[in-house]
Each structure stands twice: as C-alpha cells, then as structure tokens.
C-alpha cells in the first residue's frame, strides 16, 4: 500500500510505512476516493510550511476530518 500511495502522490513517499498501513486499516480501506480526500487535507495542512513532516498525529487529525474522532 505504501508504494502505491507514494506513486499516487509525493506526500506519501516520506510517510512511514506503518503509518500508511494504519491509515488504510482505520480510514482508507483501499478506497482511492478516501485516500484522495485525505491527501487533500494533508497538503492543505502542510502548505507553506517548510520541512513539514506528515506524522501519526497529523494523520490522526486529517482522518478525524473524514470520519470523526478515532
């Protein structure tokens, strides 16, 4: 899954593989539309920030926007 998401968008290339698996288990479920929405939320959050790192905490916030608190 991590390789597929890295090919989809460069944002996912730097995300830890364990975090990508976590997102897919809790939110993504292999649904490309959900992954696209999540990518949109994350790119908006890191826009304009230098050296922004997508970590588990940021992923949790973005996922909560899609489905509510985890």
- In terms of DSSP E residues, the strand content is under 5%
Give the tally of structural domains.
Answer: 1
Low-confidence stretches: none
Shape: globular
Number of helices: 4
User: What's the number of extended β-strand segments?
Assistant: 0
First-to-last CA distance: 21 Å
**Gyration radius, in Å:** 11 Å
Task: Name the helicity range.
Answer: 55-70%
H/E series:
HHHH
The biggest beta sheet is recorded as: none
| Mean pLDDT over the residues | 89
Structural class: mainly alpha
Please outline the helices and strands.
Layout: H1 2-8, H2 17-28, H3 32-46, H4 56-67
Helix pairs in contact: 2-4, 3-4
Walk me through the structure:
This protein is mostly helical and 70 residues long. The protein has one domain. It is built from four helices and no strands. α2 packs parallel to α4 and α3 crosses α4. The longest helix has 15 residues. The model has no long low-confidence stretch (mean pLDDT 89).
Quick take:
This protein has 70 residues and is mainly alpha-helical. It is built from 4 helices and no strands.
Characteristic key phrases:
70 residues, mainly alpha, globular
